[in-house]
Structures are given as structure tokens and as C-alpha cells.
């Protein structure tokens, strides 16, 4: 089942997960990525499709290869812990792909927080860092509360108009919060501070589709649903008007004024809290379950089947997918053609 934000009337094709992973891994490996990192990135992309997050799925491999070829990211580089000072960590992506760097950041922060209760981590010098909800979900399962805030590099990623403006000034400034839940899964809140993530615009353009209304404006500030209008000097609108704008500006200050000048794509601040240091995890899960039950008991509004907990839909869609992803035919054909062009 596909949950897509692009309006696309063309043909979609179904692909076995193993086939998609294999082709993406081959592409990355032939571009110079060490095999283990290539497999990690490929697994992450395909899982995003399984979870219904097409904007951060397989189609991203097309962008990544362009960025390798331009020198924006270095395929051969891997992340490292460049500083560890009590509860403070710095993860340096060394201008490599951001997904392995973010994977290392969450795992390293959880290890520190397990013994010291809290960890504050900055992630620097990285390329695209993928679907953050995936990392937050795993840590929340282990009893950690995580908060991730990112941004910076506005000179390259001018995407979002500030509230009241009609030209792009801000990145999409993602936030991600993971909180332990019950047997149904954690709460995972993974969102951009813009009306739509940039990846959905690339996905719509690549597929030959359109965008929902009230997401982008053209270079003159007029509403549009056409991806080309965005790429021709248009802007994404901030989510919830001044609220999204305020969160984005706060993320910019944290990412650049606090962490420092941005290299590659952006800077990130990750807070990891061991909830067991504050309250027994079993009790927390029981109280979270009561809150979940109360919320989902709400009568659904017209046009909705039910109220859901953020993060639970992705888990349900992964289960329902049955090891199959579906992509716009144009996108899949382009991925296969790219693999074939890189065969040595």
C-alpha cells in the first residue's frame, strides 16, 4: 500500500524488497561506497518505501549519485566519533553519506546515555541523513527519549519562504522526537518545518506528477502545484504559518550559531535521555498506553477512518507491504538504467 503526497496518474510498478536493495547496494558500491555502508543505506531507503515515506525512499539514490559525481558528498568516506567528553559527543561524517553518520550518532548517544543518563551529540560534515524516524524508533524501543533538530547551509538549501515572505530563505529544518510507547510501538514524530519535505517535490518532478495544494508558491508568490515552479525560483511554505517559521529559525540558530559553520549539507543536535533514570520503564509504558488509548478513542472527523499515533502508521504499512514496494514506473526505470550504466 502506498501513501504518497505526489499526485501521479501514471503506472506504478511493484518490486520485491530484495531486488530493490540489491540494485541500490550495487549502485552505491560501484560509486565507491564500502559494501557495509552501501548495504546500510540501501536498507534504509527501501525501508522508507515500505513505511510509506516515498520522499526518503529508493528514488533518493538518483540524487545521491549526482551528489557523488559533483563532489558534494564523498562516497568513500565514513563517519567517526571525533570527540567524546563526558556527556558530549561529536560525530564527524567526513563529508560522506549522512545515513551511516546518523546511525552512528544514535547508537553512540544511546550507549553514553545508558550509563550517564543523558547525551548531547552534534553531527557535522554530513550529506543527506535519511528518514530520522527510523533511528528514533529503534532507540525508543530501548527506552530512550530522543530529540533531533537540524539545519544550516542556507546558501545551498534555500527552500522555504519565511512567514510573510515570498522568496526562499530557509532549509526545511527537520525535527524528530522518539518516545517509548507500549506493545503497539513508540511515538515517533518526524517532520519538516515546511508544508512539505523537499524530497516530495523531487519525487513529484521525477515521476512527472504534481503536488498537493497550499504547499509551494512560484517565484512571484503565487500558489502552485507544479514542481517546476518551485525549481524555477519558487518556495515551499512554512508549516502552520508563523509556527513552522519560528521552529525553522530556532533550528537554524541551533545548527549554525551554536554548532558552527556548516560543511556539506547541515548540522544536527541530538539529545538522548535514558528514561529509566527518571522512572521505571514498565510504568512509563503502562502510562503511555493509557494516553494512547484515550487519544485513539477520539471520534474520527469526516474524511478520516480513525485517529492514529505518530509512528504507528509506518509500522502498520511496513507489515502490510509484505516485502513489496511500489514506485512510479519512470522512477524505477531510471534507477535500473543507472545501475546498468555503472556496471563494470
Describe, in plain words, how this protein is organized in 3D.
The structure is a single chain. The protein has 344 residues and is an alpha+beta fold. It has one domain (12-342): 2-Layer Sandwich (Ribosomal Protein S8, Chain: A, domain 1). It contains 11 helices and 12 strands. Helix 1 (17-31) runs antiparallel to helix 2, helix 1 (17-31) packs across helix 11 and helix 4 runs parallel beside helix 5 (132-141). The longest helix has 19 residues, at 98-116.
Task: Offer a concise description of the structure.
It contains 11 helices and 12 strands.
Number of discrete domains: 1
The CATH architecture assignment turns out to be: 2-Layer Sandwich
Order of helices and strands: EHHHEEHEHEEEHEEHEHEHHEH
- Topology, number of strands: 12
Number of helices: 11
Low-confidence stretches: none
CATH superfamily: Malate/L-lactate/L-sulpholactate dehydrogenase, NADPH binding domain
Shape: globular
- Helical proportion? 40-55%
- Report the radius of gyration as a whole number of Å: 20 Å
Query: Order of strands in the sheet with the most strands?
Result: 2-3-4-11-5-6-7
Structural class: alpha+beta
CATH topology: Ribosomal Protein S8, Chain: A, domain 1
- Sheet-strand content, in percent, reads 15-25%
User: In angstroms, what separates the terminal alpha carbons?
Assistant: 35 Å
Quickly name the level 1 CATH class: Alpha Beta
Instruction: Characterize the biggest β-sheet.
Output: 7 strands, mixed
Average pLDDT for all residues: 95
Amino acid at each position: 500500500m502506498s501513501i504518497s503526497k505526489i499526485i501521479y496518474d501514471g503506472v506504478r510498478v511493484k518490486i520485491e524488497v530484495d531486488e530493490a536493495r540489491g540494485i541500490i547496494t550495487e549502485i552505491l558500491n560501484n560509486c565507491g561506497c564500502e559494501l557495509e555502508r552501501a548495504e546500510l543505506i540501501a536498507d534504509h531507503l527501501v525501508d522508507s518505501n515500505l513505511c510509506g515515506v516515498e520522499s526518503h525512499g529508493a528514488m533518493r539514490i538518483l540524487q545521491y549519485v549526482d551528489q557523488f559525481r559533483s563532489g558534494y558528498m564523498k562516497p568513500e568516506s565514513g563517519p567517526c566519533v571525533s570527540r567524546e567528553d563526558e556527556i558530549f559527543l561529536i560525530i564527524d561524517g567526513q563529508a560522506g553519506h549522512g545515513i551511516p553518520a546518523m546511525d552512528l550518532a544514535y547508537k553512540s548517544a544511546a550507549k553514553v546515555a545508558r550509563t550517564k543518563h543523558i547525551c548531547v551529540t552534534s553531527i557535522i560534515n554530513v550529506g543527506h541523513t535519511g528518514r530520522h524516524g527510523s533511528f528514533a524508533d529503534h532507540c525508543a524501543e530501548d527506552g530512550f527519549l530522543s530529540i533531533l533538530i537540524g539545519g544550516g547551509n542556507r546558501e545551498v538549501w534555500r527552500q522555504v519562504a519565511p512567514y510573510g515572505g515570498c522568496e526562499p530563505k530557509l532549509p526545511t529544518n527537520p525535527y524528530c522526537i522518539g518516545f517509548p510507547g507500549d506493545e503497539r510501538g513508540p511515538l515517533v514524530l518526524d517532520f519538516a518545518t515546511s508544508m512539505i519535505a523537499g524530497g516530495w517535490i523531487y519525487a513529484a518532478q521525477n515521476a512527472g506528477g504534481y503536488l498537493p495544494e497550499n504547499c509551494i508558491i512560484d517565484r512571484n508568490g503565487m500558489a502552485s502545484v507544479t514542481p517546476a515552479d518551485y525549481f524555477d525560483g519558487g518556495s515551499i511554505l512554512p508549516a502552520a504559518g508563523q509556527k513552522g517559521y519560528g521552529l525553522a529559525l530556532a533550528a537554524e540558530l541551533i545548527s549554525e550559531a551554536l554548532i558552527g559553520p556548516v560543511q556539506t549539507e547541515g548540522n544536527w543536535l541530538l539529545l538522548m535521555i535514558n528514561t529509566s533514570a527518571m522512572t521505571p520503564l514498565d510504568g512509563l509504558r503502562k502510562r503511555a498506553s493509557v494516553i494512547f488509548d484515550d487519544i485513539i478513542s477520539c471520534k474520527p472527523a469526516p474524511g478520516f477512518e480513525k485517529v492514529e499515533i505518530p509512528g504507528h502508521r509506518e509500522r502498520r504499512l511496513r507489515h502490510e507491504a509484505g516485502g513489496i514496494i511500489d514506485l512510479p514506473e519512470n522512477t524505477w526505470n531510471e534507477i535500473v538504467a543507472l545501475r546498468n550504466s555503472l556496471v563494470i
